[in-house]
Amino acid sequence: WAARRAAASASRRIAIVRMPSSRLADGELTHQERVPVDLDLAERQWEDYVGALRAEGFTIVEVPPAEELPDSVFVEDTLVIIDGTAIVTRPGAVSRAREIDDAAPTARDLGLRVERIVEPGTLDGGDVLQIGSTVYVGRGGRTNAEGIRQLRAIAGRLGREVVAVPVSKVLHLKSAVTALPDGTVIGHPSTIDDASMWRSFLPMPEAEGGHVVVLGDDAVLMATSAPASAELVRSLGYRVVTVDISEFEKLEGCVTCLSVLVR
Ligand code: CIR
């Protein structure tokens, strides 16, 4: 364990992922209609997603798979990493509550200090967007006021300011907006409650174009479902790696939700 911990803190470019359950098609849906999911394709897409992170120099750490938890592949919702602390969330969907059982030990094994969101608070990691030293948290269907209060207390102890953002049109804050490496907030206006609250906001031409995983100072990961947005981001001087995550998008997942990055 000590050796694993030392290795983890030495490289500090880790991506936590979780293999999809064969029950993926039974995952929660809130804003979208249920459509058939091709599980073989989902598994290949997941391998490609993990491969893309590996190719970018991330060490891959897997939370043990959970067959009985359809949404467990969306591991982002279970852990929020701030510096060396992992905040184990309390997911807002009852069907997802047990996803944290294996996520917490994985965080501990990586040498992260563990904090927890506790009852009656709920918080999904997909609602947490970190830009510099500010932690934005979406108040929507999954994250409640008590979850925000607890996050504010924990993040405050870690020297972070927490800013709460209403989210009503999509599942999570990061289903609406994410940020480029320079802090510019991007998203499609149709998914955002109030774009004027962002100091530096750039509208994207597609709804899926609002989602980036920051790979480094000059590179982001985006979904192939948003080609015009990827082109726009490229035109700003970024290297854009794209992955097809169509089967996860059918379950309201986006490119951020399939991993938790530790840096
Ligand atoms: C859910 O509704 O919880 C899942 N079907 C999708 C979760 C996607 N998570 C994310 O965007 N962070």
Give a description of the structure.
This protein has 263 residues and is α/β, with parallel strands linked by helices. Helix content is 25%, strand content 24%. The protein is built from seven helices and 15 strands. It has a three-stranded mixed sheet with strand order 2-1-15. The longest helix is centred in the N-terminal third of the chain and has 17 residues, at 39-55. It binds citrulline. Residues 27-28, 30, 71, 74, 76-77, 93, 96, 126, 171-172, 174-175, 251-254, 257 line the site of citrulline.
Bound molecules: citrulline
Average pLDDT, all residues: 95
Report the strand count.
Answer: 15
Helicity range:
25-40%
Which residues form runs of ≥5 with pLDDT under 50? none
Head-to-tail CA distance between termini: 19 Å
The SSE string, one letter per element, is HEHEEEHEEEHEHEEEEEHEHE
Structure class: alpha/beta
- Count of DSSP helices? 7
Query: Radius of gyration, rounded?
Result: 17 Å
Strand order of the largest sheet: 2-1-15
Q: Please report which band the strand proportion falls in: under 5%, 5-15%, 15-25%, 25-35%, 35-45% or over 45%.
A: 15-25%
Shape field: globular
Question: What topology emerges from the helices and strands here?
Answer:
Layout: H1 2-11, E1 14-18, H2 39-55, E2 59-63, E3 79-82, E4 85-88, H3 100-109, E5 113-116, E6 128-131, E7 134-139, H4 145-157, E8 161-166, H5 173-176, E9 177-179, E10 185-187, E11 201-203, E12 213-216, E13 219-223, H6 227-235, E14 239-243, H7 246-249, E15 260-262
Parallel strand pairs: 1-2, 4-5, 7-8, 10-11, 13-14
Antiparallel strand pairs: 1-15, 3-4, 6-7, 9-10, 12-13
Bound molecules: citrulline.
Citrulline binds at residues 27-28, 30, 71, 74, 76-77, 93, 96, 126, 171-172, 174-175, 251-254, 257.
